[in-house]
Amino acid sequence: MSEPLPGDATVVVVGASLAGLRAAEEIRHQGHAGPVLIVGDEIHAPYDRPPLSKQFLAGTWDVLRIHHHAPDQLDTLGLDFRLGMRATGLDPVGHSLALDDGSELAYDGLVIATGARARTLPHAEPAPGIRTLRTLDDCLGLRADLAAAGEGARVVVIGAGFIGAEVASTCHGLGCVVTVVEALATPLARVIGEAMGTACAGLHLDAGVALRLGVGVTSIVGGRPGGSPFTVHLSDGSAGEGDVVVVGIGVDPAVDWLTGSGLTLDDGVCCDERLFAADRVVAAGDVARWHHRGVGTDLRLEHWTNAAEGGPAAARNLLAGSKAAEPYAPVPFFWSDQYGAKIQMIGRPDPDDEVVVVDGSVEERKLVALYRRGDRLAAALAISRPRQLMGYRPLLAAGASFAEALASS
Question: For the chain, which domains are there?
Answer without folding.
Answer: 11-117+252-320 (3.50.50.60), 120-249 (3.50.50.60), 340-407 (3.30.390.30)
